Amino acid sequence: MPTREQVLEALKDVQDPELHKSLVELNMIRDIVVDGSKVSLTVALTVPGCPLKNEIQRMVEERLLALDGVTEVNVTMGSMSAEERTALFGGNKLQSVPLLSPQSPTRFIGVASGKGGVGKSTVTVNLAAAVRRLGYSVGIIDADVYGFSVPRMLGITGKPTAIEGKILPMPNPYGLKVISMGNFVDNNEPVIWRGPMLGKVLQQFLADVFWGDLDYLFLDLPPGTGDVALDVARFLPGSHMLIVTTPQTVAAGVASRAAHMAKKSNQKIIGVVENMSTFVCSECGKATPIFGEGGGQKLADELGTELLAQIPLTLPLREGSDNGQPIVFMEGTENDAARLAIEALAQRVVQLTPVPARA
Ligand SMILES: Nc1ncnc2c1ncn2[C@@H]1O[C@H](COP(=O)(O)OP(=O)(O)OP(=O)(O)O)[C@@H](O)[C@H]1O
Ligand SMILES: [Mg+2]
């Protein structure tokens, strides 16, 4: 018959999918009673109507039934008291340093491009997932308020939970913390706000979302060096920029505009990512430079920065985007040329923007 400690040990890896912390650590596992081969307990959720209730219950049951000598599990789903909730969100268990405070160790990385359709969102989502797989705590803001595509690329649907005046990031199977305008509008309704309100959205995503402790926060920016890119510069003056381009001749003026903006706002361009560098055939592995060659290196030279990666066009990367799966989480793609380039890019980005060790 398992002890109380063994029960807690078995559950220590079960995380609250929105808070990304262990249920045990959050003191959510209560009233443990072991009676022969039967274990009963209560899970005290943050809010009673938690949309992830069934998922959490399933995970708890699964772990306990895997314990030696346990044949029956009785999980009651309860909720925390208002005082407990306030203490949890106001305390430092979930967040040791506020995201926007000067002491925040979080690295902000904006992903920008001169023109649309070059693969910013694909790069943002897949790079973020690859950095996550390196063991970091990673968030994504889909700052492309009109043309949001991050939820689709991660298979995220539904609306976020609001709690204690904060919005919780959207749960997903990859352990990423994600927020997008797409989570607030119904059925892909068009967003018709104008400039100043768009600025507020970014501000709210930064200030009102409960990010917890983050190592990296990636921002998928709308194409061009427009209002949102300027807002990022304004709200996150120390942030880093990745510029995505295709190998085709770069639209005139993009490089100098981006460089000028970054300089003015104390943003650092950490490098250029060339996407769709070649098409790699999944049958024969042959690489064809269908969009030409040299655009990434040329842009990097103009910006006085590094060409960090050349990501080829591959079928699995496109399929993953459409099916809501980052390629680094797709089984059987370990040798895919785009995946290898993205994994190497993740290593390089982490090297260039190291996070300080947390106390
Ligand atoms: N390397 C790649 N291999 C295969 N497909 C890719 C690759 N890069 C991008 N794609 C596909 O190309 C399309 C456009 O990419 P994506 O949406 O990431 O571009 P974007 O720059 O974010 O566009 P927008 O300017 O509209 O925001 C998507 O369908 C995506 O799946
Ligand atoms: Mg996009």
Produce a short descriptive summary:
It is built from eleven helices and 15 strands. With 359 residues, it is α/β, with parallel strands linked by helices. The longest helix is centred in the C-terminal third of the chain and has 16 residues, at 337-352.
Account of the 3D structure:
This protein has 359 residues and is α/β, with parallel strands linked by helices. It has helices at residues 4-11, 53-65, 82-90, 120-133, 150-153, 195-208, 227-235, 254-264, 295-303, 315-323, 337-352; strands at 15-16, 21-22, 29-35, 38-45, 72-79, 107-113, 138-142, 162-163, 166-167, 177-180, 216-220, 240-245, 268-280, 287-288, 307-313. The protein folds into 2 domains: 4-90, GMP Synthetase, Chain A, domain 3, CATH 3.30.300.130; 107-352, 3-Layer(aba) Sandwich (Rossmann fold). It is built from 11 helices and 15 strands. Strands 6, 7, 10, 11, 12, 13, 14 and 15 form an 8-stranded mixed β-sheet that branches. The longest helix is centred in the last third of the chain and has 16 residues, at 337-352. The radius of gyration is 22 Å and the shape is globular. The two termini are 38 Å apart.
CATH architect. name of the largest domain: 3-Layer(aba) Sandwich
Distance between the termini: 38 Å
Query: What number of domains?
Result: 2
Share of helical residues? 25-40%
List cofactors, ions and other ligands. Answer: adenosine-5'-triphosphate, magnesium ion
